[in-house]
UniProtKB/TrEMBL annotation:
It comes from Saccharopolyspora spinosa. This is Anti-sigma-YlaC factor YlaD. Residues 40-74 form the Putative zinc-finger domain. The chain crosses the membrane at residues 120-138, 158-177, 184-202, 214-230. The keyword Transmembrane helix applies.
Length: 283
């Protein structure tokens, strides 16, 4: 019986392309300068941290040595630096000069020379009031309101009157220097003059006060008038915006008390406007 044998022909393996055979593996074009086992990611992370101004996880000497040997990382570092500079440094967009329009739209500043004369006169009235109080301290004028009282009571009332005259004189001088104090001194002086006028009329009818004593109260009346003028000039010199945005009535506060505190103004067409809650110049 014949014996059959099976023969296998050798399998042909395609030869590698000469182009692929010439391309080395790794991170360098040259075969002899290549480091196949080098991982470039940590070095690129260190280069990125250097561009961002952060501490590098790898010493700088080691990073520089790797850049000298790795051409791919040098190209990557150059592209990253160009991209970082393009993001951070941009050309300034040209803007129009609005100086002339802003100055033209701004309201003219009020003249400061005119409001000074009430303050100067108020300081003069304050000095006169201090002189009047000093005269009373020296005992040169006891006034004419102390009739019908014993010595202890009349002496105490005399001290009260002297203290009040000195305090008003100091208040006038202080308000002339610090105009903001006019809001506190004005209602006190006005109330005092109203009460003093009533008592002075009664004492004058009863003959308990002399005309010279009543004449000394003219300084207080002049002080009140000057305080009113200073207060008026102070309110006029407040900076107010030229245009205020109108507010719809539906969006306004429903509480009348809150609305009165906010003080919205009315427009010509009946709408409400919002204004600043305070006027104070920056120091």
């Amino acid at each position: 019986m014949p014996c059959w044998t099976v023969t296998h022909s050798p399998r042909k393996v395609p030869a590698e392309s000469p182009v692929k055979r010439l391309r080395p593996r790794g991170n360098s074009i040259s075969r002899w300068r290549d480091s196949i086992d080098v991982d470039c990611y940590p070095y690129r992370e260190a280069l990125s941290a250097r561009l961002d101004g952060e501490p590098s996880p790898i010493p700088d000497e080691q990073v520089e040595r790797h850049l000298d040997e790795c051409e791919a990382c040098r190209a990557w570092h150059q592209r990253a630096a160009e991209l970082s500079r393009a993001i951070r440094v941009r050309a300034v967009a040209p803007t129009p000069d609005l100086t002339e329009s802003v100055l033209a739209a701004a309201a003219p500043l009020p003249d400061r020379l005119f409001p000074r004369w009430p303050r100067i006169l108020l300081a003069f009235v304050g000095m006169c009031q201090l002189v009047l109080g000093t005269v009373q301290v020296l005992g040169l004028d006891h006034g004419g309101h102390l009739h019908g009282m014993d010595g202890m009571m009349s002496g105490h009332l005399f001290n009260e009157s002297t203290s009040w005259n000195l305090a008003l004189g100091l208040g006038f001088v202080w308000t002339a220097v610090r105009v903001r104090a006019v809001a506190g001194l004005l209602p006190v002086l006005a109330a005092f003059l109203v009460v003093l006028t009533g008592f002075s009329v009664v004492d004058l009818v009863n003959g308990d006060v002399t005309v010279s004593r009543l004449a000394s109260h003219i300084l207080l009346v002049l002080g009140l008038v000057l305080l009113l003028l200073i207060r008026r000039d102070q309110r006029r010199s407040r900076p107010r915006p030229a245009g205020l945005r109108p507010v719809n009535d539906d969006l306004a506060a429903t509480d009348d008390h809150v609305a009165d505190e906010l003080g919205p103004t009315r427009t010509e067409d009946g709408g409400r406007r919002l204004g600043p809650t305070g006027y104070r110049r920056a120091s």
